[in-house]
Amino acid sequence: MDMEPFTAGLISLEDAQQKMLQQLTPISDSINVSLFEAAGRITARPINSPLDVPSFDNSAMDGYALRLADIAPDRVFPVAGKAFAGAPFNGAWPAGSVIRIMTGAPIPAGCDAVVMQEQTEQRDGGIVITAPVQAAQNIRRIGEDIQAGKQVLDAGVRLGAAELPLLASLGIAEVSVLRKLRVAIFSTGDELQAVGQPLAEGQIYDTNRFTVALMLNKLGCEVIDLGVIADDQAALRTAFTEADRQADVVISTGGVSVGEADFTRAILEELGAITFWKLAIKPGKPFAFGRLANSWFCGLPGNPVSAAVTFYQLVQPLLATLTGQTTRIMPLRQRARATQRLKKSPGRLDFQRAILSRGDDGVLEVRSTGAQGSHVFSSFALANCFVVLERERGDVEPGEWVEIEAFNSLLEG
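^ that's the sequence the OP posted. Answer follows.
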């Protein structure tokens, strides 16, 4: 099948990612923050547990603590006392009796096992055990979950709802995290107007810078917003110079497509170096990446969907790499069945916005959100995944298998 015209010189997404990421060195500056301020931050070094978990032997069940030596057929065990979480049993424990114990309560001295209450029967004068008992059953031993000194989190872990409660359970009130990445953003184009301002004739709203700022905030970056830069070489050079002075990463939107790129390319070659300029993906072909004197540069396309796709697929892993993040960023791709025809021209890897669901037969199936133009941002609002169509593939017919990539937390809400 013939490739679409003018794609032979384009770099693949995989090559672009490799060329980008292999150049990067993660930042190392760290600060200490309280656990309450640590959500979304990246651990700067491994974290070890300061204590054993559990810190004492305790019961895994509501039931009865007993000694194995006391067990005899049909024996009625009197209940000598009670043990609760936070209120252990400390009295005398007569031979031949049991202690009523609740989940999480400390195990009484001399106890060999805990029998759950469902395996007992109430009788006059006590309880009868109705099931075999094994040594140490239903007892959580000290350090069984985590031993003091054991590493619980590695460096490069993004702290979220799974990690922070773990640290809280260990009594860790403060954690060392990497400083936030500083990212400078600006848009280029005389036709752009800030969101919330009235539009003059021929103007459009600067949705790209707004979208990029939202995603950067969600990724925990410090955003330096330089606004809209006029289509003027001197103004653009000043913007690049100022952005490079302040930031770790500089992101521009617009000014990198054919017919727009002269100023941008000339300035980048003057102030730094360009690694690549155009990608074999759709949407998002006009994406630029390079190095300035003090920062990395990413030039996003002007069309809103193209800007969002390239940010998601390229800038997101770049930012994660710079923060030393080791946890998975992009979701695993999987196969789904197309429920309708998907239009596709060979030549570029295509990211179509779609809705993933499960069919009546239990198989994952996917349908398009509709129009896939690079200016149709409503396709993102409706979607929960990308259909990732191979570079050489043509149209997809209903019932064919396609590869999908579910949105991660950056896009899923």
